[in-house]
Amino acid sequence: MTIPRPRRIFLTGFSGSGKSAVAGLVAAALGWRALDTDGIIEERAGRPISDIFARDREERFREMETEALREAARQTEVVVATGGGIVQSAANRRLMADGGFVVCLEGRPDILWQRLRDAGGSATERPLLAGPDPLGRIRALKARRQPFYALADYTVHTDSLGLPQVAEEVVRAWRRLSARAARDPDRLSDLPAGQEGATGAGAGDHPACWVNAESARYPVYVEWGALARLGERLREAGLSGAAHVISDDQVWHHYGEAILASLRQASFEADSYVVPAGEASKTLTTASHLYEWLASRRVERGHAVVALGGGMVGDLAGFTAATYLRGLPLVHVPTSLLAMVDASIGGKVAVNLSEAKNLVGAFYQPRLVVTDISALTTLPARELTSGWAEVVKHALIMDPDLLSTLETRVADLRRLEPEVTTAVVRRNVELKAQVVSEDEQETTGRRTILNYGHTVAHGLEAASDYEALLHGEAVAVGMAAAAEIGQRLGMTPLALAERQAAVLSSFGLPQEAPGIDPERALAAMALDKKVSGRAVRWVLLEGVGHPVLRDDVPATLVRQAVRRACGVAEKREGRRG
Ligand SMILES: NC(=O)c1ccc[n+]([C@@H]2O[C@H](COP(=O)([O-])OP(=O)(O)OC[C@H]3O[C@@H](n4cnc5c(N)ncnc54)[C@H](O)[C@@H]3O)[C@@H](O)[C@H]2O)c1
């Protein structure tokens, strides 16, 4: 039995390889029609691709591209020229492979560059190729896509061929090879093992996740060494022009020069404003200095503010970006563990007043978040330890598997072994992104689960004028208090409380804060309640991944737990050991 040939041909390859022209010639030779995914997108959107890139960002463009491909894949007797980046999506590769014959048009970077320069480049690649070293960018981008191009059913090397010769090669390959090739729709779906790491096309090339908040959608990149590619990431997100970096002196000392170099390499006009490290900088006064600086730099709408630092810088720079010119694009580059897994995701920005912390602020989502795990190597040890508290919290309220990883890999995590640390931070980012995507402004209660341990933590922090404990340390003590309350209410099993205690202590986190006055902590908690005008909503655990919100916790239980947290009460009878 003869196997019929597929009635669709897809041409893949980098911009400049001649896909559209060759599609036209092949279609003419076979008596078929030529299609072009970029053309379908523009027709559907009613505007040019450069505009889609600039206004809707690359991610939206990629969604439209998949739609266009789906439309093309529904037709027969068509030759489809595809966008240069289409092969990076496994779903796209499957759409092409399922009943189609896929031919890649290859070319050396310097030849592609010459052709692009002569022809003005394709609409999709042009924004990606802007900058001082376009050939370098073609090389880098092409190298990353190469393993995907290599999956094609057939490859034509176009360097020394004219367009008609390339078209002839495609037709010949289709006649000879396509019948067998197109029988397996999964053949292009997965990369051969080992190729990802070898080419750098691994996890780092894709966001760890997207935050899909009601007001904005943005990617979060988590990578060991991500800072080197910061400028590139900004460009991919559709930003251009100037980038104004705000940082603190401690972080700037380590990463300032590298950040400026990366931004300038990607053709940004980059400058910086560095504030003293520490919470004392997170004020309206500093914000007004930043406004003056931005005004002196003649900042325009569309210029980016890059927040390089821990949560303090993220909040301060975020607040400034949210309010200057009614909002400048914000890029978070978190450098502390707390900022990576918590503060940079979710869009809360604020400054402190003398009356209370974070009293003046907004919900303002960034355009993207770029997290370089290697920055943790310079974070002071106590800050690092403190950051693990939020990680443990995420595991307890949402992810039993993550909790097991924390228990078994604690030694590797504490010494920042790159692979497991990156994986754990990525998972935390995903978890936080999931929650804020569901409940951006804390209206449904979903986001409230993130407050596990925070009710008592706020009391302890306020009672010690934010001096005795770092935030994560206070949260660790607060989680111990919440577990105690949960146990007394018959909700939290003893085994879970003990498991929590063990993991907190394995990360070097405290569970008591001796020396803090429990009465002051209780008064601060009562004030929190008064300011919010609501009953305190306790987050308690019924099991790992099973948080429950309760607003009926008896005051006597709270008092007992806070006293114990401050080290002044009797140890609980029910606790073992
Ligand atoms: N927006 C939110 O959702 C949110 C959530 C939690 C906390 N916060 C805020 O975050 C702040 C606390 O964040 P934080 O713990 O990151 O504090 P931080 O920003 O003050 O950083 C702690 C210290 O570590 C230094 N540092 C940070 N990264 C470093 C690095 N890679 N190498 C060397 N030094 C480094 C800083 O200079 C600082 O001295 C508070 O202001 C808090 O209110 C905000």
Structure, explained:
With 577 residues, this protein is α/β, with parallel strands linked by helices. It has helices spanning 19-30, 37-45, 49-73, 90-97, 109-119, 126-129, 134-149, 163-181, 195-199, 230-236, 249-265, 284-296, 311-323, 337-343, 381-398, 400-408, 410-414, 418-438, 454-463, 471-488, 494-506, 518-532, 555-565, and strands spanning 8-12, 33-36, 78-81, 101-106, 154-157, 209-212, 217-223, 242-248, 269-275, 304-309, 330-334, 348-351, 360-363, 368-372, 538-543, 546-550. The strands form four sheets. Strands 6-7-14-11-10-8-9 form a seven-stranded mixed sheet, sandwiched between helices. The chain has a five-stranded parallel sheet with strand order 2-3-1-4-5. α14 packs parallel to α15 and α15 (381-398) crosses α18 (418-438). The chain is elongated and about 85 Å long. It binds nicotinamide-adenine-dinucleotide (NAD).
Layout of strands and helices, then pairs:
Layout: E1 8-12, H1 19-30, E2 33-36, H2 37-45, H3 49-73, E3 78-81, H4 90-97, E4 101-106, H5 109-119, H6 126-129, H7 134-149, E5 154-157, H8 163-181, H9 195-199, E6 209-212, E7 217-223, H10 230-236, E8 242-248, H11 249-265, E9 269-275, H12 284-296, E10 304-309, H13 311-323, E11 330-334, H14 337-343, E12 348-351, E13 360-363, E14 368-372, H15 381-398, H16 400-408, H17 410-414, H18 418-438, H19 454-463, H20 471-488, H21 494-506, H22 518-532, E15 538-543, E16 546-550, H23 555-565
Parallel strand pairs: 1-3, 1-4, 2-3, 4-5, 7-14, 8-9, 8-10, 10-11, 11-14
Antiparallel strand pairs: 6-7, 12-13, 15-16
